[in-house]
Design a protein that fits this description.
- The protein is α+β, with helices and mostly antiparallel strands and 145 residues long.
- It is 30% helix and 38% strand.
Length: 145
């Protein structure tokens, strides 16, 4: 089967537990994700959603893997753009591992089940900014603009 994939690696000067907490906490999400946030009860099989600053659901899915502070995977169905929605569910996976004293290697892999995915094209420009903002927030106390 053809698929599209986006891979991003960031090294963050913070312990994995702190990176994990920022990823899972809606209030911290809002700081580094431009007002957007993830919502879930964070257990395998639970509903998952990304809500915009206006409270509308932009993406939804299910928690596929939940292994704090090492691995989080969610299915992801875009709800706003019809062409992206028509591609079906993609999977976003966050892997965290130690990379030296007080440093966490965060690897994000976002995969869609279609070649030349419009969603993967969109997240390829969004994820670097979001994760760079997360890095800035955890290292300096201030997210990117």
């Amino acid at each position: 089967m053809a698929e599209s994939q986006f891979l991003y690696v960031a090294y963050i000067r913070a312990p994995a537990e702190k990176v994990w907490a920022a990823l899972a906490d809606p209030e911290q999400n809002k700081l580094f994700w431009g007002g957007f946030h993830q919502e879930s009860v964070w257990r395998v099989g639970a509903d998952y959603a990304i809500r915009g600053p206006d409270g509308r659901t932009r993406d939804s899915g299910e928690v596929l893997e939940f292994d704090p502070p090492r691995r989080l995977a969610v299915s992801w169905l875009h709800r706003v753009d019809e062409a992206m929605r028509a591609e079906g569910h993609s999977i976003a996976t966050f892997d965290l591992e130690g990379a030296g004293e007080g440093v966490t290697k965060l690897t994000l892999t976002h995969t869609a089940p279609v070649a030349a995915s419009k969603l993967i094209g969109a997240v390829a420009s969004g994820w670097p900014m979001i994760l760079s903002s997360l890095k800035s927030l955890l290292e300096t106390g201030a997210a990117l603009g």
